[in-house]
């Protein structure tokens, strides 16, 4: 379950932002999570609550925004949707597709007091 260490990193980022921004309470943390990133949203929610105890994010809501997979097909020369890593282009069926979206784990927004 690598989601636990990912949540620890997220909490660390939030604490760093709190030091820079001078806030002491977080209401909401918004994460962008890529659909192809092999990270389970439900596990992130569970781990966020567990890791957040006793930290600045304790009691904060975690909102996860799923980012769909996308890639650039070198044969078609266009952006195509991807449902799996190293998947085939849905238009031409070839596998020369470079993933351009869907692997993200990004702290997008904080609602703070």
Q: Helix content range of the residues, please?
A: 25-40%
Q: What is the overall pLDDT average?
A: 95
Shape: elongated
Query: How much is the radius of gyration in Å?
Result: 17 Å
Strand order, main sheet: write it out.
2-1-6
Approximate strand percentage: 25-35%
| Helix vs. strand class | alpha+beta
Helices and strands, in order, run as HEHEEEEE
Taking the alpha carbons of the first and last residues, their distance comes to 31 Å
The oligomeric state is single chain
Q: Biggest sheet, in brief? A: 3 strands, mixed
- Count of individual beta strands: 6
Structural overview:
This is Hydrogenase maturation factor HypA. InterPro entries: Hydgase_Ni_incorp_HypA/HybF_CS, HypA/HybF. Keywords: Metal-binding, Nickel, Zinc. The chain has two helices and six strands, in the order αβαβββββ. The protein is an alpha+beta fold and 113 residues long. It has a three-stranded mixed β-sheet, covered by helices on one side. The longest helix is centred in the N-terminal third of the chain and has 19 residues, at 3-21. The protein is elongated and about 50 Å long.
